[in-house]
Amino acid sequence: MTSLFTDAGILAHADLVITSVDPGSYLGSPLYAVIPEHRLAFLGLVLVLLGAWWVRRRAARHLSCEETCVYRRYDRLGLRERFVFWFITTSAVVHLGLVLGHEPSGYTLAYMLATIALSWISLRLLTDRPWRRPARYVLIGSIFGYAGTLLAGGAPDQIGILTKLIEIAALAGIIVAPVATSQGKVAESLRSASVVGLIVITGFAGWVGAMSTGDGGHHLGETPPPGVLLPGGEDREPTATEQSRADHLYEETVAALAKFEDPAVAASHGYDVEGMFGNDFHAGNESLKDDGRILDPHNPETLVYAMAGDRPVLLGAMFEMDEIGQAGPAVGGPLTVWHAHDHICLSLTPVGIAGLQGPFGSCPAGAINIPITNEMFHVWVLPGLEDPFGDIDEDWLDEYLTDIATR
């Protein structure tokens, strides 16, 4: 395994040894995880499942108990009502876990109110008192309240998303009839459509919340957007040595990539530039992957282009580590942070990136989930960029490309 910097003797390699990294030490989007504040809520979810199993067993053994016996009350419930009871009870317990897991705030007050309201509905259902109308209001309020929080920039996680799906299932059990009559088919179709609509709204809000919560960059200490993994640690100012190394890497990359401004030259060197489109076209070179050369500006694993009208523009290079779990050498310290990707959806026909795994844990039809990739690092060569190792502002890039296209 060689590096341009090591071969040239430019850097002391003692502090840049290629090491392995524990995938669990990466910081990723909360969309695909259970955030620490929600662990008690997750425990509550598990306890409810155990409780449902225990009550079912106990109810079967108390068929002869008195009318006031709680098991007799539960036994009188129909199958649909039992499911609704456990769905609402689950949401109540999860919200209680959210209260206990968060520092006091306006959110914890809302969680407490939801806990009380949902518990009250569960009790009314169990004691055969009117419960359907208030249940609708509370469940719809909880679902829209969560969606509003995400649309306002709140961070979604798997507990939050799962709880809303459970509440939507409870609402479906209340408003969707098992068999629609001929007179009520239109109304029943509208109710079913409303349930589907709530699922769509929850998923959309999950995406918005995850994208707005993620700072969108690749610097230490940031919350990554969905699909991005960053090493742990906090951002800091680079040392003089790190700044010098980063400057040298940038200068070497700009000089080495100049010849690839012409895609025909890139193609002659083995880069796949066919079908170039969009503002983020990655032209890979399979012969340079797993070749043992790390961070070599003269032989980057991937070139990145954008289209300015019908003119291709070289944006920069993407360097990759040979194996998953290898930590990239951050030659410039906090200036040159490597990153990996997770929850990428890979299409099989044709082979290619189909997007990111959604809030509900699914990929598009015909695609499979890639849990984690190897580490990678970009160097941008466009003139005028404030940070050649960070993210290119989309509005800035659009203006840059428009200017080139109109020349």
Structural features, described:
With 407 residues, the protein is α+β, with helices and mostly antiparallel strands. It has two domains: 176 residues, no CATH class; 184 residues, no CATH class. It has eleven helices and twelve strands. The strands form four sheets. Strands 3, 9, 10 and 11 form a four-stranded antiparallel sheet that branches. Strands 4-6-7-12 form a four-stranded antiparallel sheet. A hairpin with a 2-residue loop joins strand 9 and strand 10. The N terminus is likely disordered.
List the domain count as a whole number.
2
Helix fraction bin: 40-55%
Uncertain parts: 1-15
CA(first)-CA(last) distance: 44 Å
Radius of gyration from CA coordinates: 27 Å
Count every helix, treating DSSP H or I runs of 4 or more residues as helices. 11
Query: What is the element string, with H for helices and E for strands?
Result: EHEHHHHHHHEHHEEEEEEEEEH
Shape: elongated
Q: How much of the sequence is in beta strands?
A: 5-15%
Whole-number mean pLDDT: 86
